[in-house]
What does this fold into?
Amino acid sequence: MTTDRPSPQPHPRVPGTMVERLAPLSRRFMLGAGAAGLVLPGIARAQSATSGPSDAINVSGAHNAPIPIALPAFTNASGGTSELGDQMIQVITSDLDHCGLFRSIGQSSFVPNSIANGVPVWANWSILGAQALVTGSVTDQGGGQVRVEYRLWSIADQKQLQGTAYTTASGNWRRIAHIIADDIYQQMIGEKGYFDTRVAFISVSGPPTSPTRRLAIMDYDGAEVRFLTSGRWMALTPQFNPTRQQLAFVSFENNRPRVFLFDLQTGARSVVGGFGEMSIGPRFSPDGSALLISVTKGGGAMIVKYDLGSRQMRPLTDANSINVTPCYSPDGTKIVFASDRDSPGEQQLFVMGADGSSPSRISYGKGSYAEPDWSPRGDLIAFTRIGSGGFGIGVMKPDGSGERLLSQGFLEGGSTFCPNGRVIMFYRQTPLRVGNVSHLVTIGSDGFNERVTPTPTDATDPSWGPLLS
Amino acid sequence: MEPRLKRSALISGLVHLAVILLAIVVLPTEKLKSPATAAVDVTIIGPHVPQQALHKGKVPAPANTKQVHKAHLSKEKPKDQPKVAPPPPPPPPPPTPHAQPKLPRPPAPAPPPPPPTRAPTPLPTPPPPPPQPPRPPPKKPVVKPAKKLPLPPKKQPPTPAPKSPTSQKHVVKTPAAMSQSVLNTIAKLRSLEKQKKAPTAKYNPRQGGAPQGGGTKMSTANSGLSAAQRNAIGSEVQPCWGIDAGAPGVSSFSVLLQVVTDASGVVREAEVAPADQGKLGDPVFAAFAQRAVDAVKNYQCAKLPLPPYMLGSVHTFIFRFTP
It folds into this structure.
């Protein structure tokens, strides 16, 4: 009897040498190593071009510090004291301190005789911690003309950075001081300044029950206030033309709310028109050729674009909800506005195309949002937020992110950016025993350096104009 | 006790008591008056207060002083306020800037004549010193006549050391800022050009020349520092490092500086490294870089904690400044 033996099972193959183990991978490995050899040096080269040698001494953790600057009084032609020079250096010092990016060193700490033959004695200024120094002189040229000469010095590099002379009427000394401050700002910060500018606002005076509201204009620091209307008719919401010295505002002249244009060069005033039941909040386009106006109709308000050249009006939104306070982006491609279309009675911020297309909501915080203003830089939108805690001035990015409040108070609003987008001005009402008092306040877009702008009367609705020079 | 003693003691005690009573009753009793406190007038002399700050806080004016003229807080209406809408005054004419950019340094004028001074009162001449006794002449040493040695050879002047690229700036400076001279332009370009690596020219036996490329390598002393030493130097400069946090894009800025220290470890020169020179066209970046230069040259931070073996000679370091 025979039985079938099962056929022997084949033994599984056991890897033998390392070559045998690595053989399947060698091709992939060689390819990968070759690719890395080609790519990695390029990456390293790119990194070294931007970040420098790997053994560089790193200095980080910088603090947000103002630049210490010394501003001795401007002298006269013979090197003596000059009353006009004293006044000018005071304005320049105030300007540079106002922006928060400079810290003026007190004149009482200056070492005597620290300028020899027009050249600084560097050690005397270095010991004060000054990084920059401004020297200058004012010379009477006769015939009511003065020549103002200034030099900006770098203490660390011990060299002159800038030197300019201006000749103008002696009565124009304040503007020259602002222009010099702008020069210093631009040289040291790398951006244009904002000191040679004016602000239009509504002056409020008289009894609280029937205040007089007049259109007024002043230098940004509160000097040289001039009233542009008599106060007989109420004036509201002035807005500067970004390209020229012109204002748009609403006047209730003859009890009819209409939009007016005011030419600051000639003093001429012209009527744009009355639209709908009421027209409020005129806003110029970036090129100054058109106005955005909120027009009430029925129970709502719509935003219209009014071309100043063709006198044609085009609605950008409907009037099914309240759409008010529009503002163009600096490039003119978008418009931000406040609307209660999502929740009646509670305004939020929306951004739409310049032709009124594709409105999208950008604000989602608690409370209502109003009076948006787009920064000239294009990076921020300032707004008024109304909540249970009162009013507040805040900023957010154009997509609605990064929202933060800069100020809170009893009643605040009317935010307007300075021409370089660094500083925001708004009005703040503070309650008194009887009535309120309203001031204009400036604050940095970073939330620091809050200052009150002095005005002869209560003030609201500021609008910051473009640079004059 | 004997009766005599008792009596004496009694009499003595009574006498003492009488004296004490007399002292209390008869002598005047005046209270010591407290010293009179005289009123002192205090005048607070404060620093100059900027215009805006006058309106910030509620600082009461001192008594019996003139009201500070707060020109922009007056509640009075302007006097020339017409009833009818006033024609707005035209804005002030724009200034005519005779811009003279980069005014040259003012020439040093002749020094003013010294102010007349009083003829100093002549000081009395001091009395002559007393004559000293004559010293005995020194003993002459006995010197043997020495052989005349030949004169030593004249010392050759030492060869000047090669100019270190880090110790001083290029000698040739632009004599005239607006010079049209080609040679001046070339010299200026050479002073700006810094050799970063050795030339890659190869030896060409046909043409002759050096078998290897000439020039010197641009080297820094960073490699001679340990990581801890580099961190210590960076920490020394950090307190002086300030930036403008609101500048656009500043959070992504980074600048390399070439910093030269002297033998004592004090920063003497600092400038933007060639790798970042191209970025200086952006004025915001240029301002950021200038703040870095100011930080490392600030007298409060310029003394770097170099290791002892690095002191005594000039070094060049590379710094990287980031926010």
